[in-house]
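Weekly sync, protein design subgroup
Attendees: M.S., D.O., the rotation student, P.L. (late)

Item 1: inverse folding check
M.S. brought a backbone from last month's batch and wanted to see whether the design step gives back something sensible before we order anything. D.O. pointed out we never logged the input encoding, so this time it goes straight into the notes. Structure tokens as presented (232 positions):
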């Protein structure tokens, strides 16, 4: 049976960040849903994302950046899923100092979500983009980002308590300026910044295909205990 990959993009991104992957199996992008009001909690939001994944289906959850956070939450509800985190984190201890300060003080409420789209050169530096094509793609993604979704996601991320992820496989860039702490906890460290999903798509494809080929049809790791989705 060919492997099945569910891909979760980063904050504000979409399936465009996965366009250079070449995976040997089924690949489905889980697109972002508009958050419900209240505001909606991450576990509840993850439950809505998980609805696209059959509960009895062995699969790979591949999450990029904020998508990795959702992959960890979705995995609580899909016991046959294996998680791969790309340029991501497993808890607040891995936030950069500015993120930890924002988490403690709540100052993130004062930062307009439209800031990075208005400062594309600053965004280029933060994301570690090197080539002109990658920069154009980054600008398009930032331009298309929904500020309301960004505001919700940043608040949920900075309030997230984290998840223990003993079986998560992690891939990180050597020059990741957004989440530099992830380098020390990753099995695969590749040259590049936060957008290695684009700049290192060939190598990441090789890693994912190799992991899937070496895994048994039904994963042998101890499954996560499903938890009931929290209400928003």
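Designed sequence read out in the meeting:
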């Amino acid at each position: 049976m060919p492997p099945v990959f569910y891909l979760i993009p980063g904050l504000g991104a979409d399936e465009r960040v996965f366009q250079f992957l070449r995976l040997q199996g089924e690949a489905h992008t889980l697109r972002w849903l508009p958050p419900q009001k209240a505001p909606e909690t991450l576990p509840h939001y993850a439950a809505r994302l998980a609805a696209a994944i059959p509960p009895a289906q062995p699969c790979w959850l591949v999450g990029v950046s904020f998508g990795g956070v959702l992959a960890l939450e979705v995995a609580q509800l899909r016991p046959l899923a294996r998680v791969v985190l790309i340029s991501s984190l497993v808890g607040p201890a891995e936030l950069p100092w500015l993120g930890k300060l924002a988490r403690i003080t709540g100052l993130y409420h004062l930062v307009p979500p439209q800031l990075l789209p208005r400062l594309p050169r600053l965004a280029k530096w933060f994301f570690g983009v090197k080539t002109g094509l990658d920069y154009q793609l980054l600008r398009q993604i930032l331009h298309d980002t929904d500020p309301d979704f960004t505001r919700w996601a940043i608040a949920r991320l900075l309030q997230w308590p984290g998840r223990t992820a003993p079986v998560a496989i992690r891939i990180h860039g050597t020059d990741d300026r957004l989440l530099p702490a992830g380098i020390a906890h990753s099995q695969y460290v590749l040259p590049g910044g936060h957008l290695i999903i684009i700049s290192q798509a060939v190598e990441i494809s090789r890693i994912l295909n190799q992991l899937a080929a070496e895994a048994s049809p039904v994963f042998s790791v101890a499954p996560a205990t499903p938890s009931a989705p929290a209400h928003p």
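Discussion: Residues 217-232 have pLDDT under 50 and may be disordered. Residues 166 and 221 are 10 Å apart (CA to CA).
Action: P.L. to compare against the previous round before Friday.
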